[in-house]
Design brief:
mainly alpha; two-stranded antiparallel ribbon; two-stranded antiparallel sheet; 65% helix
Length: 955
């Protein structure tokens, strides 16, 4: 160890630092038992005449003390604290040494706080005289100006604030006793710092004028920003304790005034406005610039609102803002060239606090002042009315005529920050001003905020105003995209997309080619950043959804989609999902035939993606896109096309992969819906491969635990049973059961059992009709086959049912069910469905308008199948949306769901009268299998028996 101690005095700083780190590591393991010489050696070095040795010893002590516990501090206090205090109190000692001495003591205080409880109280009593001396010295240092005698005391002041922060929360009682002196020192420190900031940074007229130091002799940050950050930590520690929080509230009005001083632009920041507009714009946008004084000041106000709460913080800010605005107007009248910085700082603070201001204004404005609380500052700004503030303080600077460009920049930004509260007249005025400020002759940062203001105001406007400004808006935004970073580029594209939707194709139809070309170019250039291509594709989709723009999109946007799909291996899965959504939006036709370029440009690439990619979201959305091709191009599925081949062949190859067990359930959610469409439109053409489809569906049902996927596929098999009953029953009876470790010999048994067990999981109106109709067919025509299939019936008593059950016996108790023939279970399910159908019909007959669960009056029309049991769907909604996604479905009072979707609303299944079908089926079964019906009643619920009797009595 002696060589390590000697290394602390080396000339080479890297060697000294290495020795300090090694000593600290060894001390953490061996001190004090095996390293008793550590503290005496380091303490002796503190009296060395060479400041470098003292500095090195203190640096080592800081590292060692970081691993101290309370007992370690108690052990070394008598030998360590006196020389530390002597160094700190000696104004002739180097500033950096005094700062380090205070840092060692602060680290020891933190260790003392770890004792907790009575132990900490005892230690506090023992060390109070020493602590009084340290706090007195620290408070005195905080009250000095930062620069005395040509030396900067800022480093010591920052460390003093750190020490007080370590006291505030764990030693709050002691802190409260000293709070008057501490608060006075805090106020003095911040007042001096704000005056220094305004003098040296805000009002510095030339680059030659001196500025405050940013680093001390040891290279540590002692800037005003660091001081503010440490001050913020101290205030937050105080706000955690109720009695100290009151002190913070008392200080708030004065504190807000000083923080508004720090919120002004520094000269160094404003020099970028003229010299490097792009750098200034980056400074405004990037998080890395949040550490400048103005942002630290705003962050302190936000933290104060979060910790102090109530209205006092925001009231203080508004009072300070009102006073600051009055001062700015006075300075302007007197010819002060810096008046605009005061006004800009006010707008910046209030805009940055927009969310907090609105929350307090809405929730706390009516709360009366509590007795004994902090005095509220007088201000006409409270209660806060955002539109009044925007109209009188912000809007006068939106105009370019005679307006300071920085104030115009901040005014546009303020409108963006408060866009969520704008009314239509204000939004119209702001929108017009913001669009004009997008002109490339304006400063880049001003144009950026104009873009944000446009984005915020557009949602309040009607389409006509967007239409009249569309050409200018798109042109300016396109130019801005070429200069902006990715974050702003995303906002520009979002504005274009919003404008297209608002315009509804009136003006956008004249700009399809330039919009498409721009988006294609951005997709090509920004492929590495998934956000931009995804935004471009969403914009193209909005364009494609406008009928007047569709032909232009076919010509110009389809190549972009095809290119993105062709490069899917290098694109993010989010982009691929957006691409498939774009294609789904483009693929639209009313006559069952799509333009050839739609097929040739996109379909081959989409097939390639679905045969190659493994991303669940992409496969699911891509399958939904194939549904759109089938839906709108079903007359062309069997035609030979150049570059495409026969679409049906490609579709079947995709289905073969999607239904394979190698993919996850979530990737296959659209498979059932795609198969429904193919069977509906290409049933005959599918006949040769139908056995393979059935076997694949059965295998997925056997291996999948996903309710939505299973009910989709069961509904599909029931539909095939309705269409080809004989062929289906023959196929099932000759196919082995797909269930693993099953005693079922053939797939018929598996199919029947799964249909019956899954019936309760089918919640769509369409699915219920399909499966109920299939059950009717099976009971009518295949009752003998059904009677041989044993299924689970009602729950019956288990062994030892009469015994008193404990937790352990209840856990081991086996639940048993009655075994009944499938015919009995079918009868029970049909009885339940019949009852629901009757109730549904009677309700509709008796009330044309009924209330949903949300209390909304909704027209009901049985022929159209419209009912507010489900939310409005896009015409391109995925199949899973209407085949059982329960979390997305809203139920009508009777529990049924009518699906309004292109895939099912015109399906022939909707013409089936389930109620009449059940009546016919049960009567036929009773006539032909009366004995079986009578014997099965013992296995049915009493409600089912009564319903069957009602069915038999229907005339």
């Amino acid at each position: 160890m002696s060589s390590l101690y000697q290394a602390l005095a080396f000339e080479e700083s890297k060697l000294r630092k290495a020795a300090q780190a090694v000593i600290a590591e060894i001390a953490d393991i061996a001190w004090p038992e095996r390293l008793p010489s550590l503290m005496p050696t380091l303490v002796n070095m503190l009296s060395n005449e060479a400041s470098m040795v003292v500095h090195s010893s203190l640096s080592c002590l800081v590292l060692v003390a970081e691993n101290f516990g309370a007992e370690d501090v108690e052990r070394v206090a008598s030998q360590l604290f006196p020389p530390l205090l002597s160094l700190f109190a000696n104004e002739q000692v180097e500033i950096v040494v005094r700062k380090q001495a205070l840092s060692v003591f602060t680290t020891c205080l933190v260790a003392l706080a770890s004792a907790g409880g009575e132990k900490m109280k005892g230690l506090m009593q023992a060390f109070q005289p020493v602590l009084d001396e340290w706090v007195g010295r620290a408070v005195a240092a905080m009250q000095h100006t930062a620069h005395e005698g040509g030396r900067s005391l800022r480093g010591i002041q920052i460390e003093a604030v750190k020490m007080l922060s370590s006291l505030a929360s764990p030693f709050s009682k002691y802190f409260l006793e000293k709070s008057d002196a501490i608060m006075q020192a805090m106020w003095s420190l911040l007042s001096n710092a704000s005056a220094e900031y305004e003098r040296m940074h805000v009002r510095r007229s030339t680059e030659d004028e001196p500025v405050s130091d940013e680093e001390d002799e040891a290279g540590e940050d002692i800037s005003l920003n660091t001081l503010l950050s440490e001050f913020s930590s101290l205030v937050m520690q105080m706000a955690e304790k109720t009695r100290l929080k009151k002190k913070v509230k008392i200080m708030m009005p004065s504190l807000a005034k000083l923080l508004l001083v720090f919120a002004q632009y520094a000269v160094s920041e404003m020099s970028l406005w003229e010299d490097d507009p792009a750098e200034f714009a980056a400074m405004e946008e990037e998080e890395s610039f949040r550490s400048n004084a103005r942002n630290v000041a705003v962050d302190i106000l936000v933290l104060l609102q979060e910790t102090v709460g109530g209205t006092i913080v925001m009231e203080s800010v508004l009072a300070a803002a009102e006073e600051r605005l009055a001062t700015a107007e006075k300075c302007k009248a007197e010819g002060d060239p810096y008046w605009w910085k005061m006004r800009e700082a006010v707008m910046y603070c209030i805009g940055s606090l927009s969310a907090e201001l609105m929350d307090v204004a809405q929730n706390g404005a009516e709360k009366k002042k509590k007795k004994g609380g902090a005095d509220r500052p007088a201000t006409s700004f409270w209660p806060f009315h955002p539109l009044t503030y925007l109209t009188h303080i912000v809007m006068p600077y939106l105009s370019n005529e005679g307006t300071n460009p920085v104030l115009q920049h901040r005014s546009l930004w303020s409108m963006h920050m408060f866009s969520f509260v704008l009314d239509k007249p204000t939004a119209e005025h702001v929108f017009t001003a913001a669009v004009s400020c997008l002109n490339q002759n304006y400063h880049l940062s001003l144009r950026m905020n104009a873009c944000k203001a446009v984005q915020g105001t557009m949602k309040h406007l009607d389409g006509q105003q967007i239409t009249s400004s569309f050409a200018y808006l798109f042109g300016y935004l396109a130019m801005l995209c070429g200069e902006a970073g990715s974050d702003l580029m995303h906002i520009c594209i979002d504005c274009i997309e919003m404008a297209i939707k608002k315009d509804e194709g009136r003006a956008a139809s004249q700009h399809v080619q330039p919009i498409s070309s721009m988006m294609v170019l951005l997709i090509q250039k920004q492929a590495a950043d998934p956000v931009i291509p995804a935004s471009c594709i969403a914009c193209l989709k909005a364009l494609a959804e406008q009928p007047s723009c569709r032909e232009g999109v076919y010509a110009h946007a389809l190549p972009a989609a095809a290119e993105a799909l062709a490069r899917y291996t290098s694109l993010d899965s989010t982009v691929l999902e957006k691409v498939t959504m774009l294609v789904e939006g483009i693929v639209h036709s009313d006559d069952g035939a799509l333009p050839v370029q739609v097929w040739s440009a996109v379909f081959p690439s989409l097939i390639t993606v679905l045969l190659s990619v493994d991303d669940d979201a992409v496969i699911q959305q891509g399958t939904a896109t194939l549904k759109a091709f089938v839906r709108y191009g079903h007359t062309q599925l069997e035609q030979e096309m150049d570059g495409v081949g026969t679409p049906l062949t490609s579709l079947l190859s995709v289905l073969s992969r999607i239904l394979s067990p190698t993919l996850s359930d979530s990737a296959e959610l659209e498979a059932g819906g795609l198969l429904h469409l193919l069977i509906r439109y290409c049933g005959e053409a599918l006949s040769p491969v139908m056995p393979d489809i059935v076997k694949a569906a059965l295998s997925r049902i056997a291996t999948s635990s996903h309710i939505v996927l299973n009910t989709d596929l069961i509904t599909l098999l029931c539909r095939l049973t309705l269409l080809h009953p004989s062929a289906m029953m023959t196929l099932l009876s000759s196919t082995p059961s797909p269930a693993p470790d099953s005693h079922e010999e053939v797939a018929t048994v598996f199919f029947v059992r799964r249909v019956l067990s899954s019936y309760a999981d089918i919640h769509s109106r369409f699915g219920t009709k399909v499966v109920a109709s299939a059950l009717c067919l099976l009971l009518r025509d295949y009752a003998n086959e059904l009677s041989t299939v044993a299924v689970k019936g009602k729950q019956v008593s288990a062994d030892n049912a009469g015994e008193l059950r404990t937790r352990s016996t209840a856990k081991d108790r086996k639940v048993e069910y009655e075994v009944i023939p499938a015919t009995a279970k079918v009868l029970e399910l049909l009885a339940m469905t019949y009852k629901e159908e009757v109730e549904r019909r009677e309700k509709k007959d008796g009330d044309d308008e009924w209330d949903t669960d949300e209390g909304e009056d909704v027209d009901s029309d049985e022929e159209e199948g419209e009912e507010e049991g489900v939310g409005k769907k896009s015409p391109f909604a995925p199949a899973s949306d209407f085949f059982g996604l329960l979390e997305e479905l809203k139920y009508a009072e009777d529990g049924d769901i009518d699906i309004e979707d292109d895939d099912v609303k015109d399906d022939p299944i909707n013409d089936v009268n389930v109620e009449a079908d059940i009546v016919q089926t049960v009567k036929k079964y009773a006539a032909e299998h009366g004995d079986a019906l009578a014997s099965s009643q013992a296995s049915l619920t009493s409600a089912a028996v009564n319903t069957i009797q009602q069915i038999l009595e229907v005339q």
